[in-house]
Design goal:
- The protein is mainly α.
- 71% of the residues lie in helices and 0% in strands.
- The chain contains 17 helices and no strands.
- The chain is globular, with a radius of gyration of 20 Å.
- 48% of the residues are buried.
Length: 306
């Protein structure tokens, strides 16, 4: 599903390689399976066979896996333990920030990204991450400044154009939003980026937006959220969208229904139908996980409608 971080898939400063020799420390860092990594990180931490900086890193690695399992409280506890052992553990600030973000604790996330930026001022990922949280909060000027800094440090930083494009969209600068979202789509083709690009073009008054949506998504369709493309092309109706949004897994069904509500609200807004759009946006804010792109979008649209 479209988490705000879905184009920022990054284990800060550490990749997950193939497992090295089968000792706890190596498997803590390298095991791809989250449960296995947690098991070996725990054993390594309990062994105390290292200095504080290394044990802090084991806490960070375990925290990353807890986040992957959506156990954000445990992740936060591990990253906090890492910082108690090593106050300069930039990775701990960054990864704790992402966990706070996933819990919807945006101010705490920003505070951790502030700390990470002070420790590692030349890393574009930190500015990208903080910019996302500032945009969710509605502080668009500071968010745009962070995205500009990230691109200054790395003009090919993955996901930044998508994040900045959404921020311009939220700030009602639809022309700049479309330019950034077009760059994001060229960078990494994705059906959700194409949806946001269509919305920006449409809100900017681009008469060719629908034809461009057809072109941009031709090779990306299949399963959800393809029915939303059909909705914006006037090839289906809202009732069919609600049927298509049904899924057997409860968590998946919830996320898909959240997406359906947000994008159907956008369809209403395009037609100038504020009242049904507002009802759907309020439903997103009341029912949906706070780490969804669509929750971010519903917050911004609600601000705009006020």
């Amino acid at each position: 599903m479209t988490k705000r971080w879905f184009l920022l898939v990054w284990l800060f400063a550490h990749g997950l390689a193939q497992a090295q020799p089968a000792d706890d420390a190596a498997l803590c860092r390298n095991a791809a399976d989250a449960d296995l990594a947690i098991q070996h990180c725990t054993a390594a931490i309990q062994s105390r066979k290292a200095g504080n900086e290394t044990i802090a890193e084991w806490h960070v690695q375990r925290g990353i896996r807890w986040s992957r399992k959506r156990n954000y409280d445990q992740a936060i506890a591990d990253h906090s333990a890492a910082l108690q052992l090593d106050a300069k553990a930039t990775n701990a600030h960054y990864n704790r920030g992402t966990a706070w973000s996933n819990k919807g604790e945006f101010e705490r996330a920003i505070a951790d990204f502030d700390a990470a930026a002070k420790l590692k001022p030349d890393d574009p990922v930190v500015y990208h991450a903080r910019g996302i949280e500032l945009a969710v909060k509605g502080d668009y000027p500071r968010a745009l400044a962070d995205f500009a800094k990230a691109l200054q440090l790395n003009n090919k930083a993955e996901g930044v154009y998508f994040a900045r494009g959404r921020t311009y969209f939220h700030a009602s600068d639809f022309v700049r939003a479309a330019a950034d979202l077009d760059a994001a789509l060229a960078e990494k083709p994705n059906i959700y980026v194409a949806l946001w690009l269509f919305l920006a073009r449409k809100r900017a008054g681009d008469d060719g937006a629908t034809d461009l949506l057809e072109r941009d998504t031709r090779r990306l369709r299949g399963g959800w959220p393809t029915p939303l493309i059909a909705l914006f092309m006037d090839r289906t109706d809202v009732a069919s969208i609600n049927i298509a949004a049904n899924a057997s897994d409860p968590a998946l069904r919830r996320d898909i229904l959240c997406e359906a509500d947000f994008y159907v609200a956008q369809a209403h807004l395009i037609k100038g139908e504020r009242k049904p759009a507002q009802a759907l946006l309020q439903r997103v804010l009341g029912n949906c996980p706070k780490n969804l792109l669509e929750y971010e979008g519903a917050l911004a649209e609600t601000r705009r409608l006020r």
